[in-house]
Design a protein that fits this description.
heterodimer, A: about 170 residues, mainly alpha, Rna Polymerase Sigma Factor, Chain: A, Arc Repressor Mutant, subunit A, about 0% strand, B: about 270 residues, alpha+beta, Phosphorylase Kinase, domain 1, 2 domains, seven-stranded antiparallel β-sheet, about 20% strand
């Protein structure tokens, strides 16, 4: 038990950050992390064969996130009003008037897979191999999709800036 | 640089991430020196990578909520026996919790793990007694966050719930909380009327029957109607007479019935 806690607990801040970046709602993010940890604890015995703990945890969390998304779509519920409010709030933040968009707005313009790649590699410092494991895609595909995700984010941020400037003129 | 591998997309990404071995890093840098447009894109991508990290730093720096403590989660997981095959240990834990919740608890743990209307009603009445008298913290999530409350409890209970509208009956929602019931999650919504009388609606998944009729019971001054519908067990409990409580139970039944239908449903 102590072993499980001592291995899992150091991962919790990163899991919370990834969950929040996906959901943009503090409570819902912690619900997701809690589900992830519960599943990890109940399947702890199966973990050894999977190898890497971090990749395993992020895989569980992303799959739970995707399942939740699918269920909510099937049920036709709104994905959380707070998330929408937050996005709007970011869009009208002082930086956006200065022509600098919140980078999270750019993140929202990407597909879920691109978002997860940027977060897992660029923020959570997963190796490319670990990211390939989490997303269930080959290593070479990780590199090309990462390249595309970064280009898309860059273009989005650039275009956003130019439209703001045009409007100011 | 003769004989070296040509610079690729993978090198540029690893350069952005600062993950290249120093010789390769220098090779990419030299390449970018000769390709200023590309160098500009790479520079922007590095800046965006840093911006994203900086934007999210606060979240990982927050103190971890106690509900995410592994010890707490593991303690909670020892309760559901059916999934983990340690029926005896879990039954003992279940009994201990049952007795801790008091004499009104009814059958807290049914050995087979079967949910019966009677055992759920007992748990619901026990929860009602414990929480309606609470002055400071009657609910975990207040009614002001109803959308979140309903979404959260639906997720945890595993079925779409709503907080029924009981204003016609004089009760307004004050909030809700999540409770353990035989190792499963149960939702408790609490309502209050202008006289300060509180009513609770308890809901959890399971139920050995698809649908049951209303079942009434009263213990001391508390009355409860329970029923099972659409895979959910419901118990509405209040300090009220049977005749007063019945129309409220019927209202709740009708509102949930409507949500079970995807066309009419609010959720």
């Amino acid at each position: 038990m102590d072993e499980i806690a001592s291995l899992l607990e150091p991962q919790i801040p990163a899991l919370r950050r990834y969950a929040w970046a996906l959901l943009r709602d503090h409570e819902a993010a912690d619900d997701l992390v809690q589900d992830t940890l519960e599943r990890a604890i109940s399947r702890w015995g199966q973990r050894r064969h999977e190898g890497d703990l971090r990749a395993w945890l992020f895989t569980i969390q992303r799959n739970l996130f995707l399942n939740g998304l699918r269920q909510r779509k099937a049920r036709g519920t709104q994905v959380g009003e707070e998330a929408l409010n937050d996005v709007q709030a970011f869009g009208t933040s002082p930086e956006s008037h200065a022509g600098l968009r919140d980078v999270l707005t750019g993140l929202d313009a990407l597909s879920e897979e691109q978002r997860s790649l940027l977060l897992l590699v660029g923020v959570e410092d997963l190796s490319y191999e670990q990211a390939a494991q989490v997303l269930g895609i080959p290593l070479g595909t990780v590199m090309s999709r990462l390249s595309r995700a970064r280009a898309r984010l860059r273009e989005f941020m650039e275009n956003g800036r130019s439209t703001v400037l045009r409007r100011v003129k | 640089m003769t004989g070296e591998r040509p610079i690729g997309e993978d090198d540029l990404q690893a350069f952005v991430d600062g993950r290249l071995a120093s010789s390769r890093h220098e090779a990419v840098r030299a390449y970018l020196d000769n390709h200023p447009a590309l160098a500009d894109q790479v520079k922007q991508e590095i800046e965006l990578r840093e911006a994203l990290r900086a934007r999210l730093t606060f979240k990982a720096a927050e103190p971890v909520p106690s509900r995410l403590r592994v010890a707490n989660l593991m303690a909670a997981q020892r309760r559901p026996a059916r999934r983990r095959g340690t029926a005896v240990a879990a039954a003992v834990v279940g009994l201990l919790i049952g007795s801790a919740l008091g004499a009104a608890g009814g059958i807290w743990w049914s050995g087979s793990g079967r949910v019966t209307a009677a055992s759920v009603a007992g748990n619901a009445i026990a929860a009602h007694r414990i929480y309606v008298g609470e002055r400071l913290h009657p609910v975990e999530v207040p009614a002001e966050q109803e959308a979140h409350l309903v979404q959260w409890l639906s997720r945890r209970v595993g079925k779409p719930l709503t907080a029924p509208n009981l204003t016609a009956q004089g009760y307004r929602l004050i909030g809700g909380r999540l409770l353990p019931d035989s190792g499963e999650a149960a939702a408790l919504f609490m309502y209050e009327n202008p006289g300060g009388n509180r009513l609770t609606l308890y809901a959890r998944s399971g139920g050995s029957e698809a649908q049951t009729s209303f079942r009434f019971e009263s213990r001391d001054d508390v009355s409860a109607f329970s029923w099972i519908d659409n895979g959910l067990s419901y118990v509405v409990t209040a300090k009220a007479e049977r005749a007063q409580l019945l129309p409220i139970a019927e209202t709740i039944y009708r509102q949930f019935d409507a949500t079970g239908d995807p066309v009419k449903g609010r959720l």
